[in-house]
Amino acid sequence: MEMKKLTVPTHKELFIKRMQEAILSGELAAGTRIPPERELAEKMGVSRAVINAGIIALVSQGFLEVQPRQGTFVADYRHEGSLETLNAILDLKGDIFSDREIRSILEIRWALEHLTLKNAIERSRDEDLCEMHKIVEAIRGAADFRAAAEEAFCFQKKLAMVGDNEILAMIITSFRKPVVALWTRFCSRYGSQLLYEHTLKSLEYIRKRDYEGAVRWLDHIMQDALEGETSIYNR
């Protein structure tokens, strides 16, 4: 086991996390005016500079909005949030997701992977296919479930990169934490060998430039993960 240096969250990080939790739980509803910085600093026992820096970060993440001469309010992040909002939510949740969130993540992955497959089949070169094969074999040789999940994510990221769509690759990367967490759960239930076999079969369709076959296979494994024998919902 690798021993890593322990780090203590800063006051700013603790303030941001507390505010995120209050907003996401509904304790602070959209449209709620939060107290002035000085009042928050006194109540939370930190400096006003900490509160100010935290509010700036929360505004950037889409959780708060500043209205001139009126104050700072909780933003409607569900309708106005950005990719930065999503990343903040995923960071806060870690590996813990509700069944509804699992379905949402899988459905987004499903839609994105249709495009990554199409682009990879049309644009990948022989050397790209060799690199993808090495990643697939790394899934089989992974030391544990988490490592296998990380390699599976590397495969998906590689698909996006060889498809020559930088924006798509960045969107795929933004989902790294939840996707790796869900694949780790998949491996813990059904074994990393099955993840290896699924990924290898996808690669075979890409090698044959068979988009229709690749999509049928993707639809099958995603439907199975949602409602079939390899479901990854909470038990």
UniProtKB/TrEMBL annotation:
Domain HTH gntR-type as annotated: residue spans: 9-77
Q: What is the lineage of its organism?
A: Bacteria, Bacillati, Bacillota, Clostridia, Lachnospirales
Q: Does the keyword Transcription apply?
A: yes
List the CDD domains hit by this protein, alphabetically: WHTH_GntR
What is any Pfam family matched here? FCD
Descriptive protein name: FadR family transcriptional regulator
Q: Which domain of life is it from?
A: Bacteria
Write the record's keywords in alphabetical order, separated by commas: DNA-binding, Transcription, Transcription regulation
Record the organism: Bilifractor porci
GO MF terms held by the record: DNA binding; DNA-binding transcription factor activity
Q: Which InterPro entries does the entry mention?
A: GntR_C, TF_FadR/GntR_C, Tscrpt_reg_HTH_GntR, WH-like_DNA-bd_sf, WH_DNA-bd_sf
